[in-house]
Design goal:
The complex is a heterodimer of chains A (659) and B (294).
Chain A lengths: L1 H7 L3 H6 L7 H15 L23 E3 L3 E3 L10 H11 L18 E2 L4 H7 L4 H5 L5 H27 L4 H7 L10 H14 L8 H5 L9 H13 L4 E4 L4 H9 L8 E6 L5 H12 L4 E5 H11 L5 H4 L2 E4 L3 E4 L3 E11 H9 L8 H33 L3 H6 L3 H4 L10 E9 L1 H17 L5 H9 L3 H8 L10 H15 L12 E5 L5 H7 L29 H9 L13 E4 L5 H13 L4 E6 L2 H9 L8 E4 L2 E4 L5 H8 L10
Parallel strand pairs in A: 4-5, 5-6, 9-10, 10-11, 12-13
Antiparallel strand pairs in A: 1-2, 3-9, 6-13, 7-8, 14-15
Helix pairs in contact in A: 3-7, 5-9, 7-8, 9-11, 12-13, 16-17, 27-28
Chain B lengths: L1 E11 L7 E6 L20 E4 L9 H5 L5 E3 L3 E3 L9 H5 L5 E4 L1 E4 H9 L2 H7 L2 E5 L7 H13 L3 E6 L5 H8 L4 E5 L5 H8 L4 H12 L4 E7 L7 H13 L3 E8 L6 H5 L14 H11 L6
Parallel strand pairs in B: 2-8, 8-9, 9-10, 10-11, 11-12
Antiparallel strand pairs in B: 1-2, 1-7, 3-6, 4-5
Classes of the chains: A alpha/beta (659), B alpha/beta (294).
Chain lengths: 659, 294
């Protein structure tokens, strides 16, 4: 009955969910996915070398989505047929996160992942059938076979359509081969990659350069890559990672990113990175494109220390998915980001409590203890949510695409992937460092205020007091030894909290400092803070200094950052830098190399002067293409909410010879 | 050993190759008319007073033991009574009063210098001792340079070259690079513009070249004073005749430091002179040739 009702509405995917209602959720979703692919609208052919390209509009409102397998939130008939929606909701929307809402800054059981593109390219999707047929569980086996059948039919429909519109023969021939069969040429490889990206709802590109390398013979592939990147960008996909083991390929991948918001490219660098790669990277950033720099050695060594089961060959699959959450392409299920502990909210609660603190150490200890309790609760609820997710939100497509789900005969959300961890953001770390130092200086060292008086001034959002806090000599960003010791201690105490959590279906937890856009909303929920932050204003955007306190120049700032316990924040510790566009490339390279030689892990750059940013704020129509780095990802400046625009304008523009 | 320093600036990229830390010393034997760091001329600490920032809170007059600060219609600061104790600068809420110069040990300076060691290494940078005039505190300068070299840090000084030969030698033997200022090539004009004769400077320049220490000639060019063809010609000839000269770097006149004169309660001697255009500066540079730090 329900099946027919959905069919009548043209909701083929939803009808598939009710063809065999007594089967498991996994099976039903898999069949729904099959019906989706058998009936979905196809992308319009627009002459591009890759197909699909652009946005594919769907008449069906229940369609595929990487977080839930099939998405139900946009069901068109919610109001006209509430009973139908209730059935969908009762059957397929029972999963809810139990992570405490206050501590979901940046994420609440969000997840990114990437298919094992390389395997699909080298083996072809049809080869997966042999492996699927070995699965003992009927629902899982038959469900995955449905998904493959659906994809197969989808590809047939695409090629029939392309023939009907007299599309390029080369494209048609290639699509009749990939992704079902192995790729052999670079064109087939990129076409296959693109196709799988669309099957995965354009989440991330993974380790593109590494994956294309076996098929690359020095061809000019920039136009193909531009097409691929545009597809990712227009569908709001995120990132890709690469090293420079094949410099000419890396350079082409960078070139193709000129002027493009996405992908955010994670460029793994070290002292041996060739000059041509550096040049290409800086050129790309100048055009608005988005490579960020990652310390290959420290990141990989630290990750293998944190999770000793990570194999050397697998760590080469590193890719920061989403905003730059650490994961392995095609091999991992990563909570990115599962939760975000609102540090300033906890501090605010402590300051407003009836507790008294005879010494700064007492206050510090209470703060750490409270954060610890919150972290323990959050980690427990993450595991609980994972259990619920495994029960109520199976993901057939990711089970198909991510190893070792098929080999382990285990669904993706139930721990099938080779690796799994959960990333927890510690939001407002720099605000917290400066706030605690302010309290130490003003209340306990100089005894200028009592704690009560300080809290009263904060509650009043007192401007003069906040300016006083900003001008205090002991603050983060100027490479002051006493501050570095404190910031290391605090970051170590916080970031290592995640080591004690036990994660269901995974190795464990990783700490991070990634804000996405959430620093604004998180700031709105709390009052003024002793770092000088006004009430309801955004938290720190990254691990760079705040409120212009980094007045001793970029080397002092970078030293302050590397004083933090970054090796325990591998989820990633994001650092945003603003530079004027005429900044010397050799000096920038030296800054980055110095930073990574000091075990800095990540650095992302926006080239924009204060003048340009202010002009973009006043005259957005003149700056349509201005792309900035914010909170771990890249976005058009014009698309940001007002408070984030102002936050970026107020970032220090690092320049030379600061006194 | 202690010395009087003006400031230690990190991340300098114009005082030698790569990323550098520049140690600015206080005190200089010259009195260049165009000096843009007038607070560096005297070795002793000095108070600079910015009338525009003053909010007339009168805290300084309450703290000062020498009666330097009085308030009638406005704040008056009597510099000649000042002993530079610095009490008023610590209390000034608007930073209208600031103290320039402080005593620092070689160890303190080195601690600051070593912070950027990783960046010197990645950029081919190092340390530059400037001023003021580093030869004015020769022992202090030499000690810093020696210690830097022991740490494998590239060393440079920026100097006017005005000192006796022994003092000059005692410092430059610890240098990997010298930035040597030539303010004026005409001897008479040199005295008029800088207050000191130039003969000892050129003797030291020749000595430097004989020691095979690479050096760059830095030539401040001041419109209407030394922007003359004969001066440029001499500079070019000089750079070509010296074996270890890395070229001549033109330093175009600017007025960025002129506001400091009023804060020191002095008159800026070149208030009528305009900054040269970029095209003019480029023309001067092309006349004397190219330069590099290596």
């Amino acid at each position: 009955m329900l099946k027919k009702r959905f069919l009548k509405l043209g909701e083929f995917a939803a009808s598939g969910l009710y063809e065999e209602p007594d089967r498991s959720l996994f099976y039903r979703k898999a069949l729904g996915i099959r019906r989706f692919f058998e009936n979905c609208d196809l992308a319009e052919y627009n002459g591009k070398p890759l197909y699909p390209s652009g946005i594919i509009s769907q008449k069906m409102s229940v369609s595929t989505g990487y977080m839930t397998g099939l998405t139900f939130g946009n069901f068109k008939y919610k109001e006209s047929d509430p009973e139908l929606y209730k059935c969908l909701s009762d059957d397929f929307c029972r999963y809810h996160s139990t992570v405490p809402k206050d501590h979901t800054v940046t994420g609440n059981m969000y997840t990114h992942s990437m298919p094992n593109y390389e395997r699909i390219l080298s083996e072809g999707l049809l080869s997966y059938i042999g492996r699927i047929e070995k699965i003992e569980d009927d629902d899982m086996r038959e469900g995955l076979l449905h998904v493959v059948a659906g994809i197969r039919r989808y590809i047939e429909r695409c090629t029939d359509y392309l023939k009907s519109v007299s599309a390029d023969e080369k494209l048609i021939n290639a699509l009749q081969k990939v992704p079902l069969y192995p790729a052999e040429t670079i064109y087939e490889a990129i076409l296959s990659w693109n196709f799988v990206l669309y099957l995965d709802n354009c989440d991330n590109l993974g380790c593109l350069a590494n994956g294309l390398r076996p098929y690359y013979n020095g061809e000019d592939i920039v136009p193909l890559l531009e097409n691929l990147y545009d597809n990712l960008d227009i569908n709001n996909g995120y990132s890709m990672a690469m090293n420079s083991d094949c410099p000419s390929l890396t350079v082409q991948c960078l070139k193709a990113a000129h002027g493009r918001r996405r992908p955010m490219i994670e460029l793994l660098v070290d002292n041996a990175t060739p000059e041509e790669v550096w040049t290409a990277a800086f050129e790309t950033i100048r055009t608005g494109g988005q490579p960020a720099f990652y310390n290959r050695k420290t990141l990989f060594d630290s990750l293998q220390k944190r999770f000793p089961n990570v194999r050397d060959e697998d760590i080469q699959h590193f890719c920061g998915g989403g905003c730059t959450e650490t994961m392995f392409t095609g091999l991992s299920n990563v909570g990115s980001v599962d939760a975000g502990i609102h540090l300033l909210m906890i501090l605010e609660d402590i300051l407003h409590s009836s507790l008294t603190f005879e010494s700064f150490e007492n206050l510090y200890f209470t703060f750490i203890s409270q954060v610890g309790k919150t972290a323990d609760t959050v980690m427990k609820e993450i595991s609980n949510s994972r259990e619920l997710r495994a029960k109520y939100n199976p993901l057939p497509m990711r089970t198909l695409f991510v190893d070792d789900c098929i080999a382990n005969q285990t669904e993706f959300n139930a721990g099938g992937a080779r690796y799994g961890w959960s990333i927890i953001n510690f939001a407002g770390l720099i605000n917290t460092i400066d706030s605690l130092l302010s309290i130490k200086t003003l209340v306990y060292d100089e005894k200028k205020y009592t704690l009560k008086q300080l809290v009263e001034l904060l509650d009043k959002d007192d401007d003069a007091f906040l300016r006083e806090c900003i001008s205090l000599p002991l603050s983060y960003g100027r490479d002051i030894d006493e501050v570095n010791e404190f910031s290391h201690r605090l970051s170590h105490d916080l970031f290592t909290m995640t080591e004690r959590g036990t994660l269901l279906f995974g190795e464990g937890f990783l700490s991070a400092s990634i804000q996405f856009q959430t620093q604004a909303a998180a700031g709105k929920r709390i009052g003024a803070t002793p770092d000088g932050r006004h009430k309801a204003t955004p938290l720190c955007d990254s691990l760079a200094a705040i409120f212009g306190k980094d007045s001793d120049g970029p080397t002092a700032l970078l030293n302050s950052i590397t004083a933090l316990d970054l090796k325990n924040a591998l989820g990633t510790p994001v650092v945003s830098f603003n530079l004027p566009s005429q900044f010397d490339d050799d000096i920038l390279k030296a800054l980055i190399l110095g930073y990574i030689n000091n075990d800095g892990i990540q650095l992302q750059i926006t080239y924009a002067s204060k003048k340009e940013l202010l002009d973009a704020y006043e005259n957005p129509h003149l700056h349509d293409n201005l792309i900035v780095r914010v909170g771990g990802y890249s976005e058009y400046f014009n698309r940001l909410p007002d408070d984030l625009k102002r936050m970026i304008i107020n970032r220090t523009i690092q320049s030379e010879g600061v006194m | 050993m202690n010395g009087n320093i003006l400031n230690i600036t990190r991340f300098c990229t114009d005082d030698g190759p790569g990323i550098r830390t520049t140690v600015f010393l206080k005190g200089c034997p010259l009195s260049c008319l165009w000096c843009h760091n007038p607070e560096s001329r005297y070795q002793k600490c000095e108070i600079l007073y910015d009338a525009e920032k003053c909010v007339s809170c009168t805290l300084c007059s309450q703290l000062c033991k020498n009666g330097c600060h009085t308030f009638n219609d406005s704040h008056s600061f009597q510099k000649d009574l000042c002993t530079s104790c610095g009490l008023c600068t610590k209390s000034c809420p608007s930073k209208a009063l600031q103290i320039y110069g402080k005593s620092a040990s070689v160890e303190e300076v080195m601690a600051r210098i070593k912070k950027d060691a990783v960046f010197y290494s990645s950029s081919g940078g190092g340390v530059t001792v400037s001023g003021g005039e580093p030869l004015f505190q020769a022992d202090f300068t030499a000690e810093i340079l020696k210690k830097c070299r022991n740490e494998g840090i590239h060393t440079a000084i920026e100097t006017s070259g005005f000192s006796n030969k022994d003092t000059f030698l005692s410092v430059i033997r610890h240098c990997d690079l010298v930035l040597f200022d030539i303010k004026e090539t005409d001897p008479q004009k040199h005295i008029r513009f800088t207050g000191v004769p130039s003969d000892v400077i050129f003797e030291n320049l020749a000595l430097l070249d004989n020691l095979h220490i690479p050096f760059l000639i830095r030539a401040p060019i001041i419109p209407t004073l030394n922007d003359r063809e004969d001066h440029f010609k001499t500079l070019r000839k000089l750079s070509k005749s010296l074996q270890n000269c890395l070229g001549v770097q033109i330093m175009p006149y600017h007025t960025l430091g002129s506001y400091k004169y009023s804060q020191l309660q002095e008159e800026y001697p070149l208030s009528d002179i305009k900054e040269p255009s970029k095209e003019e500066s480029a023309r001067w540079q092309s006349y004397v040739g190219t330069f590099s730090y290596k």
